[in-house]
Amino acid sequence: MVKMTKEKDIDDLPKNQANYATLTPLGFLERAALVHPNRKSLVHGSLSYTWEQTYKRCCRLSSALTNNRITFGSTVAVIAPNVPALYEAHFGVPMSGAVVNAVNIRLNAQTVAFLLGHSQSAVIMVDQEFISLAEDALKVLAEKSGGKYKPILIVIADESCDLKDLQYALNRGYIEYEKFLESGDPNFVWRPPQDEWHSITLGYTSGTTASPKGVVLHHRGAYLMALSNSVVWGINEGAVYLWTLPMFHCNGWCFTWTLAAICGTSICLRQVTAKGIYSAIAEHGVTHFCAAPVVLNSLVNAPKNDTILPLPHTVHVMTAGAAPPPPVLSAMSECGFRVTHTYGLSETYGPSTICAWKPEWDSLPPHEQARMNARQGVPYVVLEGLEIVNTQDMTPVPADGTTVGEIVFRGNAVMKGYLKNPKANEEAFANGWFHSGDLGVKHPDGYIEIKDRSKDIIISGGENISSVEVENILYQHPAILEVSVVSRPDEQWGESPCAFVTLKPDVDASNEQSLAEDIMKFSRSKMPKYWVPKSVVFGTLPKTATGKIQKHILRTKAKEMGPVRKSRM
Question: Which domain of life is it from (predicted)?
Answer without folding.
Answer: Eukaryota
